[in-house]
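Predicting holo structure, fe (ii) ion bound.
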Amino acid sequence: MQMIVRGARLHTGDGRTSEGLHDVECDNGRILRVVPADDQKEPPATGRVIEAHGALLTAPFVEPHIHLDTALTAGEPRWNASGTLGEGIACWSARKERLTRQDVLDRATEVLRWQAAQGVLYVRTHCDVTDSRLVALDALAELRDRVRDVLDLQIVAFPQEGVQSFPGGAELLARAVERGADVVGAIPHFEDTREDGIASLHTAFALAERHGLRIDAHCDETDDEQSRFVEVLAALALRSGLGERVTASHTTAMGSYNGAYSAKLQRLLGRAGIHLVCNPFANLNLQGRFDGYPKRRGLTQVKEMLAAGVNVAFGHDDVMDPWNPLGTGNPLQTALMGVYAAQLTGRDEVATAFSMVTDRAARVLGLGDTYGLAPGRPANFVLLPATSPADAVRRQVRPRYVISRARLLAETPPAPTHLHWPSADPAPVDFLRDQDAPEAHWRGR
Ligand code: FE2
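Done. Tokens:
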């Protein structure tokens, strides 16, 4: 046997956990068996043994929406002074002229390493293809091959400056698909006219159908309540039969739609089966910039769409680029920000937020039975020093171990803080409230 994790609490999906503790046995890079823990049983003589001591084992974090090509360019050549999406695009447009293969590789690799160290082993990155040289696309395709043994990278051909409105935009999108993009993108709200926006979505669907690809459109990323391309995207998904192969990202205009239209949309999106990706960091930053007070939150309808049966995931989106000067790629930060931004503070909603950066995000990427803690699936998982998904979100824990293909990829030893409290000996502080829970005996290991 290649590896066994003993005595773990399993995240079984949608924020739920297993009854009791389990052992996960792995061989040949795959999960062999998942069985109730038996601490009387001798550990195997060969292979790596990880004693979980009741810690939370989850399938890896999944990043459903990031921009690796623009990452780590904040301030180059200038800072986004207004903080708007439009000025961000203008800053990036100037930076794009200086792109080289090595520049993109260096920055994207750096952020992928941050992600892997934090347990993100499936990543969907958007890549701007409104560039006649397609420099970033070629570099990210090269990186996708380089990291194939460690993590899975999907590349979206993303027409940042438009399909209809950018010279040669449609042709560049088609070329990007032929050169290896995994997913077709669009940005209908940025096109010059509503008709251009609709035409761009037809172009995206035609390409996706011709090449058998999925679609992920930046859609209605504006506070303009008249921006209503998500209904077009959903209708096309429904009529083409692409359904769950289609994702609408951002959809922030939804935060400004009236109740009657929202009700229509919830029904349409539920029928279409498309996914939504909410990016709380970027959109709390970018939206509401044209408002006085009251100032809108500028986020999609997370709670309402979840209630309507729509799959919603959280994405990190930007890491130190013209649209967000901060960012670390940490999915638990994304989940925490999402909890507050979308007010997911109900009894089970924090756990739902955890699933929005794990199994719900996996559905966006279409990972199917290549993802999850079940026999026959790749032995990819993360051991979190937490008692539950909600506890992991609250305490923002670092993964103790990240396992990829049954091999140890990253480990983070515990780093206790000792409090020199008045009139007492220094004592460790770990912010747990349920210290009597049997799950908590992994502390300090
Ligand atoms: Fe984005």
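The two ends are 24 Å apart (CA to CA).
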